[in-house]
């Protein structure tokens, strides 16, 4: 079975450019999570969806960040405009349902903003 | 105060020894507790979950939970060099429906 799929795996862009990260959760999973990981701040939850509906976006750092989940098999995280401090590894994870179920992480997207 | 705290590490143990990783949490109504392992450059993967007080064993791994002390630990017996990774403690709090992760403890098992 395919796990969580993320694209691109690496992204290098210049400050001010728009960046779109993509995620395909495991088929049948109802919850999807976007995380950001940096050395300084560790693994932080940005936003999560349940049944395609955003439930908690309190971790989204600012209005430059937005996330959508138009259907059960696809989600995007967009940064516009990007800044050097956005450089991090962005993980998408999915679980069968919110709560106690195991979260399965994708391979991550390493973003570098110059 | 961070919601989930782990011993800062890095932690080095010789091959065959017991590695002990510790985690404390601040939300008294937390319900579920998880240990994830993350190899360098890879994504986190779940290795243990525990929901009630006491010990839970899975192979060489034992998770221990003490809700009164708000403490959860992971013991790795007969440590192997392949266990060298960062171990993340994650807590599902009572009020929120998402995980809060600790900053991780880097473990190195020396051959």
Describe the protein.
The complex is a heterodimer of chains A (114) and B (111). Chain A has strands at 5-7, 10-13, 19-24, 31-38, 42-50, 53-56, 65-71, 74-79, 88-95, 104-105, 109-113. With 114 residues, chain A is mainly beta. In chain A, a hairpin with a 2-residue loop joins strand 7 (65-71) and strand 8. The mean pLDDT of chain A is 93. In chain A, the strands form two sheets. In chain A, strands 2, 4, 5, 6, 9, 10 and 11 form a seven-stranded mixed beta sheet that branches. In chain A, strands 1-3-8-7 form a four-stranded antiparallel beta sheet, with no helix packed on it. Chain A has no helices and eleven strands. In chain A, 0% of the residues lie in helices and 54% in strands. Chain B has 111 residues and is an all-beta fold. Helices cover 0% and strands 55% of the residues of chain B. Chain B contains no helices and eleven strands. Chain B has strands at residues 4-6, 11-14, 19-25, 32-38, 45-50, 54-58, 61-66, 71-76, 85-92, 99-101, 105-110. In chain B, the strands form two sheets. In chain B, strands 2, 4, 5, 9, 10 and 11 form a six-stranded mixed beta sheet that branches. In chain B, a hairpin with a 6-residue loop joins strand 9 and strand 10 (99-101). Chain B is globular and about 45 Å long. The model of chain B has no long low-confidence stretch (mean pLDDT 91). At the A-B interface, strand 5 and strand 10 of A face strand 5 and strand 10 of B.
């Amino acid at each position: 079975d395919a796990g969580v799929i993320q694209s691109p795996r690496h992204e290098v862009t210049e400050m001010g450019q728009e960046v779109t990260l993509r995620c395909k959760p495991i088929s049948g999973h109802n919850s999807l999570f976007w995380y950001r990981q940096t050395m300084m701040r560790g693994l932080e939850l940005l936003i999560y969806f349940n049944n395609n509906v955003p439930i908690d976006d309190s971790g989204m750092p600012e209005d430059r960040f937005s996330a959508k989940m138009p259907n059960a098999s696809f989600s995007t995280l967009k940064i516009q405009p990007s800044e050097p401090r956005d450089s991090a590894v962005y993980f998408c994870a999915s679980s069968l349902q919110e709560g106690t179920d195991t979260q399965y992480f994708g391979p991550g997207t390493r973003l570098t903003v110059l | 105060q961070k919601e989930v705290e782990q011993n800062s590490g890095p932690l080095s143990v010789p091959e065959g020894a017991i590695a002990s990783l510790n985690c404390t949490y601040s939300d008294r109504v937390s319900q579920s507790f998880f240990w994830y392992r993350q190899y360098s450059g890879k994504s986190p993967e779940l290795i243990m979950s525990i929901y009630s007080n006491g010990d839970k064993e899975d192979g060489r791994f034992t998770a221990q939970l003490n809700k009164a002390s708000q403490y959860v630990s992971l013991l790795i017996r007969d440590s192997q060099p392949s266990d060298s990774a960062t171990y993340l403690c994650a807590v599902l709090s009572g009020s929120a429906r998402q995980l809060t992760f600790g900053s991780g403890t880097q473990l190195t098992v020396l051959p």
